[in-house]
Amino acid sequence: MTRTKRAELLVSATLAAIVIVLVFGTLSGEEAVVTDFGAKNLAPSVEHIFGNDWLGRDMLSRTLKGLSLSVVTGMAASVVSALMALIIGVLGASGGKRTDAALGMLTDACMGLPHILLMLLISLTLGGGTYGAAAAVALTHWPGLSRVVRGEILQLKESSYIKIASKLGSSPMNIFRKHYLVHLLPQLVTGTVLAFPHAVIHESSLTFLGFGPGSGEPAIGVILSESMQYLMTGTWWLALFPGVSLAALTMLLFAAGNSARVLLLPQEEALAAGGNKRIPSGTGRFGPAKSSRTELNRQSQIDDSTSSGNAELKTASGAVLSVRNLTVSFPKEGEAGTSPGFVNGEASGETLKGVDADLRRGKITAVIGASGSGKSLLGEAMTGWISETAQVSGKICLDGEETTAARLRALSGKRISVIPQRLSGLDPLKKIGKQITRGDGSQKALERAKAALAKVNLDEKLMERYPFELSGGMARRLLIAMAIFDGAEIIIADEPSPGIGKEETDRILTYFRALADDGAAMLLITHELSAAEKYADEILVMRSGKITDRISGDDFRAGRFDNPYTRALYDAAPENGFKMPEPEFADFARGEIL
Amino acid sequence: MILKAENISFDYSTGYPCGGHVRRKIFDGFDFAVKSGDRVGVFAPSGRGKTTLCRLLAGYMKPASGRITLEGRDVSSLKGFSPIQLIWQNPELAVDPYMKMKDVMAEAGGLTDELKSSLHIDDEWLDRYPSELSGGELQRFCIARALAPETRFLICDEITTMMDSINKRLIWDFILAEAASRNLGLIAVSHERALLDKVCSRIVELCVN
């Protein structure tokens, strides 16, 4: 079952449960209070499913009645809470500094006091009873949500698209309606629904403790607290069934609250349907280890029967890591009608179609080509970190022997390292030394970290500093040091020098060259021809998932290449003449891939 | 029309966790002017304030002192659709993730058939959310959005930095043609000197203080 369908089912089941509770609770008004001493203390039976109490009252009716009371209170309380959260959140985020501080203090005060104590105080102040308990519940469930609202607004205020909207002439009212409200609504609705079970439980607790409706009313709390006196006499059903019903309703409401989120955020659903996000927030494209990746092996074994014929294993001499006839595609099944179900690279149809590539010791292999041509996908496959929705066939070999994605992943950070495109892989709160050694404080690790830093010309004193104290170029060098800390022999770099200027790119790549000269096998994925031109030993030119050209670095530097696509790529670069490509190479102009 | 920055200064102050802060001067008494039809390149190494300059000129931020004016009127006080449009470096951040592309374009007054065909935007993409498009596809929407009929000055902040050479060439071909036919003032910001040499008629270098 898909996420959407499961969510829809849960929400409808919950709604149905609420309706049943409300309808029966109202209908069974009489039965719940009518006493019948001829039928007291009856154990559960077909006639009285939940049994009867010491006054001969039907427990099923009493439970439903009690639940319906809790549901009504809970619903009112959560709606009031959500409104309060919205108002307080909006005021806090858009009012002045003082308003914000005052509201912040109020929120902290509410959150700081034990919840039940706060409710008791409010309920007592308002005179107790049904009304007092309801008000107490309503007035204490907003702080969490109001913080979410405030935080969301503050973040949205700084977002580029909201600033752009105002430059496109949108009025503040329209911006509030089309951007802020759309972002806040799912939070509010989810917050309301999630506050609902809390409110139900809290209302029951208050009643149980005697601060809610009086003993005459069949509220769940009253039922439970009264049943305590009779438990000793063996009438277990008095507490069990009402208690279980309350727990079941609460859990159903929680589940529905979480499902509401799925339904309200269709684009998150789209992301989920496309498998995991291709760009995890951690360390750039290759990202942190997650278990939700497919084993390359599983698929390749299935495909073995068909592809072993043409995927003959002849790894080039000196090759450490090789792929043969590697084919990767993403099924564009998607959710019927709602979302196309593919994301990012997958959205642009990035695939691999029978790619052969070798990484050799001491060599830099560069992969160039248009975005969406499959460069990054090749890197992902070579590290074993490939999306779980991918269909993979072909072989991957380490030291000339076929291996699996899982085994490759187990080596990541050790024998195989990735240098990410983004600096976001650096933890701003951790000292640099700790980040390089990954928390290993041993003398040996420290020595190795110092050696790694020395390789990229960074002072070992930096180990005691934090990432924000580094310039952009130093941070990139740090990423390299982190990659080589554990003696990686295979280094895969996906756009290691994005938009950082020629000199800095040059500097980064000299370190790459030095690492390769020390014996590392390197894969350099880049769209900057100049980077590949200067330092690569072999250049693979990719287009639409295939390697259309392979040139040795020396031939490329000497201009000895005649593949028309490579030529078009080369000539179109601003430094090589900025020549307009022939229409057949203008993939973008043909509506393909940009 | 003329877009002018006169004697502007701007600095960022960076606060440190344990108190104290450092003021970093980005601009001090900086002058800059672009006329309709001009193609000005702004070249600087990273961290030298290129993006800051773009945001100041487009009226997203105000200088600490000095004036930035369009035909004598302060750019940050312009109301309604701004005739100075900025195309941001990261298209993923420039589009509301909860809006379908057709609503994104509606906010900018709609997408003309002309732009749609010259930027090769698929009709089918209009019904998608940004997360369902690639960065390059999104950037095309952002370019289309900035090229509404009211636009007079176009500021391009590293818009092709993450593109390969062929796509870079095609995008600039389109932008240059559009700028020429509509007599737009064009400001191209990049760390790639070679690119600016090709697309601009004049280059301003932001040097290290």
Short overview:
The complex is a heterodimer of chains A (594) and B (209). Helix content of chain A is 52%, strand content 11%.
Annotation keywords:
A: 594 residues; alpha/beta; six-stranded mixed β-sheet; four-stranded antiparallel β-sheet; 52% helix; B: alpha/beta; five-stranded parallel β-sheet; globular
Structural class of chain A: alpha/beta
Q: Proportion of β residues of chain A?
A: 5-15%
Helical element count of chain A? 22
Helix and strand sequence of chain B: EEEHEEEHHHEHEHE
Main sheet attributes: strand count, strand direction, barrel closure of chain B: 5 strands, parallel
Strand content of chain B: 25-35%
**What does the overall shape of chain A look like?**
elongated
How would you portray this structure in words?
The complex is a heterodimer of chains A (about 600) and B (about 210). In chain A, about 50% of the residues lie in helices and about 10% in strands. Chain A has helices at about 5-25, 60-95, 95-110, 115-125, 130-140, 145-155, 160-165, 170-210, 220-230, 235-265, 265-275, 295-305, 345, 375-385, 405-410, 430-435, 445-455, 470-485, 500-515, 530-535, 555, 565-570, and strands spanning about 320-330, 350-360, 365-370, 390-400, 400, 415-420, 490-495, 520-525, 540-545, 545-550. Chain A has a six-stranded mixed beta sheet, sandwiched between helices. A four-stranded antiparallel beta sheet of chain A has the order 2-1-4-5. In chain A, strand 9 and strand 10 form a beta hairpin. The two termini of chain A are about 35 Å apart. Chain B is an alpha/beta fold. Chain B has helices spanning about 50-55, 100-105, 115-120, 135-145, 165-180, 195-200, and strands spanning about 1-15, 20-35, 40-45, 65-70, 75, 85, 155, 185-190, 200-205. In chain B, strands 6-7-8-3-9 form a five-stranded parallel beta sheet, with helices on both faces. The two termini of chain B are about 30 Å apart. Classes of the chains: A alpha/beta (about 600), B alpha/beta (about 210). At the A-B interface, helix 7, helix 8, helix 11, helix 13 and helix 19 of A face helix 4, helix 5 and helix 6 of B.
